[in-house]
Description:
Blueprint: H1 8-30, E1 36-39, E2 42-47, E3 50-56, E4 65-70, E5 73-80, E6 99-106, E7 116-121, E8 124-129, H2 152-164
Parallel strand pairs: 1-6
Antiparallel strand pairs: 2-3, 3-8, 4-5, 5-6, 7-8
Amino acid sequence: MIVRYQHPQAAYRQIDQHFNREFERLVRLGFKRAAVQSSLRADVYTEGEDLVVTAAVPGVSPEDVTVEVEGRRLSITAERKAREAAEGDRYLVRGLSAGSFSREFTLPEGTSAEQVSAEVADGLLQVRVAGAVKPAPQARRIPVNGVAPVIEGAAEEATDEAAAE
Length: 165
């Protein structure tokens, strides 16, 4: 009887090699799609009376960003174009997805397109809606006037005396 010793990590290496081959195959299949539709990551906050939306648009040029206002709806769309590979070039790993990214927000009542401005810098799109945040109404204290209490017994005596005269 022959007993063969196999190092415990040998099985692990075989599984790891198989996993890596399968992962690469799936990545190659996945990136043959025409485009990816995804949601933009964004922060929404206020600066004074302005509403500010900051969205991540890495690798997107300002010409490929669209900001639209329709009624109370603010729509932001960005498109990252795929890099054209020259002949002879090949990807070893593709991790930057190309495609269209979008997000919609609801603006406060009474907001117009003239209040909206947008700019792209350092991979961030900043959309500012000027004067969209109305200050909260201030509470006002209303003075309460007092009236002298009327005592019923005294009021009846006064009316009886007035009727007797």
